[in-house]
Amino acid sequence: MAYISQYQYYENGGNNPESANWGSYQYVSLQDIVNNYMLMYVGNNQLINNVDRYQVLFHAKRAIQELNYDAFKEIKILQLNVGANLRYILPFDFVNWVRISIYHNGTLFPLSENIQTNYASAYLQDNNNNLLFDSSGNVLSPENSQITLDRIAGLTRSQYLNETSPYYGYYGFCLEGCWYFDFSIGGSYGLNTETANALPTFKIDKKGGVINFSSGAGNKSVILEYVSDGMENGDDSLVTVNKMFEEFLYSYITYSILNTKLNEPEYIVNRYRKSKSALLRNAKIRMSNIHPGRLLMNLRGQDKIIK
Fold this sequence. Notes:
By secondary structure, the protein is α+β, with helices and mostly antiparallel strands. Among the domains are: 29-72 and 242-287; 76-159 and 190-227, no CATH class. 28% of the residues lie in helices and 18% in strands. The strands form 4 sheets. The chain has a 4-stranded antiparallel sheet with strand order 2-12-4-5, with no helix packed on it. Strands 3-11-10-6 form a 4-stranded mixed sheet, with no helix packed on it. Strands 7-8-9 form a 3-stranded antiparallel sheet, with no helix packed on it. The protein is extended. The N and C termini lie far apart (55 Å).
């Protein structure tokens, strides 16, 4: 990023938003990375020559994507309310989730992923269970399958897991936030600890681009922490990378170009393969933020008596 004055940094030159440049010095833009590489690493007297800018741009983007998946600790956080359809639309730049929580009275309550399927697609059938087709020969599909309708209506039989209630462990139905039990048969043994939680559960439909929640999450505020690829919706001017990884990016681009060239000596390719791995390892150590104060906090509990 180009150097800016302190007034431009703190006040954005009097423009809105005021916070546009806060924290920007720790990043270098994709444009600067490509320009620097073309100036300093490409030429007649350099190892890399006869390479076009678009090739450097492609490999730089791939390197940034890999860093976002593996090394960066820049988790995006989005808060949305879940409607009556118990769905949460995934963000446009969603790649993978880190944690999903319900926000209530200033506290985050992490949710558990449902190991069982709570959604499905369906086909229309006649009274003889034969599939129905349209005039083009395509199978007709309803808007929602029966399992989805039951989940939205709260009719899916599930286990009540409120330890403060005498109905803890009973199976029943949750409808509009109220639980109904058909009969009591005593405690439930062999509890599935993977989903033993009084909070709603979720299942991500990646192909459909939504998170499906169990009954009880309706009209609740849900916070999604997720990982993006860092491509900023295709706007190259907004793509940035931490300066700790800048040297790794140059090495990654060099290795990727050499690895795709014909008649390139194998020892040179291996040299830059090892170089990029070493630079990535060093950058990860720098970004690990291992401070003595954090270690001390963990060591304080070493003498705690375990009952």
